[in-house]
Amino acid sequence: MSGQSYSVFNALVDIIASPGTALDEVKSHTSWLWWPLLISLLLAAGLFYYYYHWVDFPWLVEETIRQIPAESRAESADAVRNFMNPTTTMWASIGGVVLGTLVIYLIQATYFHLVNKITTGAEISFGQWFSFTNWTAFVGIFSTLISFAVMFTAESNMVAAESLDVTSLNALLVHAAPGDPWFRLASATRLISIWTLVLMSMGYARWTGASMLKSSIIATLPTVAILGTWAALV
Predict the structure, then answer these.
(1) Tens digit of pLDDT for each residue in 42-73?
(2) Of 3, 86, 131, 192, whose CB is crowded by the most CB atoms within 10 A?
(3) Cβ 136 vs Cβ 111: under 8 Å
(4) How far apart are CA 187 and CA 178, in angstroms?
(5) DSSP reduced 3-state for 168
């Protein structure tokens, strides 16, 4: 399906079911980027809104304090209790995910734009690369939907936000407790991220004509560098 018969709604389905087709089509439809961006942000905002109305908040406050290193826990406890309340924490989380997502997408778009100019010279604008980052990250909505499902099926409402994503490396393999050195890194490494990297590799190859090997190296290099540095510091 292509041409006038192909719509943004087809692309939203195909980025999951037939990613090659979707990536080919969205290249020439930069304005479509608002759909995956808004859907992703609205779902993420909805997740935090629901979570902070659902979670046992007094328990969450004490759990947050428990994760503070023992040497500074006592002096920080009162500040945490005074700062944390459902409304403030909810809006701070929503604002953080919206701003953080936009910043990450802009950085990724800048990276692909510059690397393309250096390595292939294909005529692809910055706006197209920004669209590219939005579309390849769209599969992240499955992580959000899974988190909703975890809350809907949980036996209690004493669940930390990090435990909502059962596709993380921590949930699947590491099982580090909050406060353990590997907890944050393992919780931030998710299976969905691998899906996104595969789409980025495929998309870069299709958009620029670079080999799949070269495209995979370019797409995965920043993530490997960040996680590798983080692991070394841990």
Answers:
(1) 999 999 999 999 999 999 998 888 877 777 77
(2) 131
(3) no
(4) 10
(5) strand
Residues 197, 199, 203, 209, CA torsion sign:
positive
Global confidence as pTM: 0.90
List C-alpha distances in Å: 206 to 34, 125, 132, 164: 22, 15, 12, 34
The answer for 55, left when phi > 0, alpha when psi is -120 to 50, beta otherwise, is beta
Report the pLDDT averaged over residues 191-211: 96
Tokens of 184: 């944050």
| Those residues with Cβ within 8 angstroms of residue 204's Cβ, 6 or more apart along the chain or in another chain | 112, 116, 210, 215, 218, 219
Dist. CA 163–CA 178, nearest whole Å: 10
- Other C-beta atoms closer than 10 Å to the C-beta of 142 total 14
Query: Does the CA dihedral 158-160-165-166 come out positive or negative?
Result: negative
